[in-house]
């Protein structure tokens, strides 16, 4: 017996018909749906995006920049990714223009780009981006040798922090924890803060470069970084004492480790500093820590043998005033 197509299936089918008729907007929309895992294959979606970009579609060029920056097909090629971002900016894609201005770090060029920008401004902004500064390892300060805990001063510039906050703000929702039996996310009283997770359709080249900087600073490949998250704490909200490693003794988490690897390390970037309290606490170490805006805290969740390190018990303490924004990046070990 055949089953009627669900509304998402019908929407994909309609996009396919329109795209086959030569509609570039539909082609890009279809490509994004396929890249998100809806109704087809990611390679097909990437091919549709690439073809639309070649035909001068500005949004497609911005998506292509993300694909190249993420290393979706091969290793990351930041120079090529920025070329596509420039193409998107020249085509009028506002988010691409904002990213080029932000990444350039040149206040004069930024001001020039804000009002009546000359045609060559986007190329000048692109050429002003210092990829070496982004991709070179940052200087770290060791707080603890065992367990390994370190900080990085001025890891991200204040304007980059502000961008990430605003990109995540519309999607903030109640944070979840792993269910101990099933491994699925669930809301729990132990975690009352909110969170947002960048997926392929919400990420951009600014966030991708931040991920590359984290990879360079920690020595892990970008491909083992989980989806980047942003955490938000209002007054009184907290994440009670917990571990970031996945406990292999719990059935749901053992399956997660086998398929995706252990969560071996945590990297946190403090995105603002307009709050009181809200430190990251390590109670078994007698330590509380808070970084200034743009600073980062890194700690290993496992010992040198790869076994869970229970000394890394920690908590996100509640703000006494203001609100706290934090980039959260978990790092995986090998699966199996």
Account of the 3D structure:
With 336 residues, the chain is α+β, with helices and mostly antiparallel strands. It has two domains: 7-130, Serine Threonine Protein Phosphatase 5, Tetratricopeptide repeat, CATH 1.25.40.10; 135-332, q2cbj1_9rhob like domain (Jelly Rolls, Sandwich). It has helices spanning 7-20, 24-35, 42-54, 58-69, 78-90, 94-104, 107-114, 121-127, 131-135, 158-168, 205-218, 251-260; strands at 141-144, 149-152, 173-174, 177-178, 185-186, 194-197, 229-233, 239-242, 263-270, 275-277, 280-282, 287-289, 296-300, 314-316, 319-322, 324-332. The strands form four sheets. An eight-stranded antiparallel beta sheet has the order 1-2-13-9-16-7-6-3, with helices on one face. Strand 4 and strand 5 (185-186) form a beta hairpin. The radius of gyration is 21 Å and the shape is globular.
């Amino acid at each position: 017996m055949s089953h009627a197509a669900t509304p998402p299936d019908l929407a994909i089918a309609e996009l396919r018909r329109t795209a086959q008729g030569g509609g570039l907007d539909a082609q890009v929309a279809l490509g994004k749906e396929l890249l998100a895992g809806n109704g087809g294959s990611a390679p097909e979606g990437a091919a549709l995006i690439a073809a639309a970009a070649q035909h001068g579609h500005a949004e497609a060029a911005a998506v292509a920049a993300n694909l190249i920056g993420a290393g979706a097909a091969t290793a990351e090629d930041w120079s090529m990714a920025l070329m596509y971002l420039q193409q998107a900016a020249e085509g009028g894609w506002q988010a691409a223009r904002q990213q080029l201005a932000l990444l350039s770090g040149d206040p004069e060029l930024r001001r020039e780009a804000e009002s009546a920008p000359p045609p060559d401004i986007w190329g000048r902004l692109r050429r002003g981006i210092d990829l070496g500064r982004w991709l070179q390892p940052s200087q770290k300060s060791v707080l603890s040798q065992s367990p390994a805990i370190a900080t990085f001063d001025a890891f991200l510039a204040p304007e980059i922090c502000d961008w990430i906050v605003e990109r995540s703000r519309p999607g903030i929702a109640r944070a979840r924890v792993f269910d101990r039996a099933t491994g699925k996310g669930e809301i729990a009283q132990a975690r009352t803060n909110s969170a947002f997770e960048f997926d392929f359709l919400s990420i951009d080249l600014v966030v991708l470069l931040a991920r590359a900087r984290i990879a360079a600073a920690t020595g892990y490949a970008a491909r083992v970084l989980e989806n980047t998250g942003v955490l938000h704490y209002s007054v009184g909200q907290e994440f009670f004492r917990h571990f970031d490693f996945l406990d292999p003794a719990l059935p749901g988490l053992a399956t997660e480790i086998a398929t995706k690897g252990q969560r071996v390390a945590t990297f946190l970037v403090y995105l603002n500093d307009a709050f009181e309290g809200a430190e990251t606490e390590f109670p078994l170490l007698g330590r509380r820590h808070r970084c200034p805006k743009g600073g980062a805290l890194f700690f290993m969740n496992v010992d040198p043998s790869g076994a869970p390190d229970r000394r890394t018990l920690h908590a996100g303490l509640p703000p006494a005033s203001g609100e706290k924004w934090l980039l959260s990046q978990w790092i995986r070990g090998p699966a199996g």
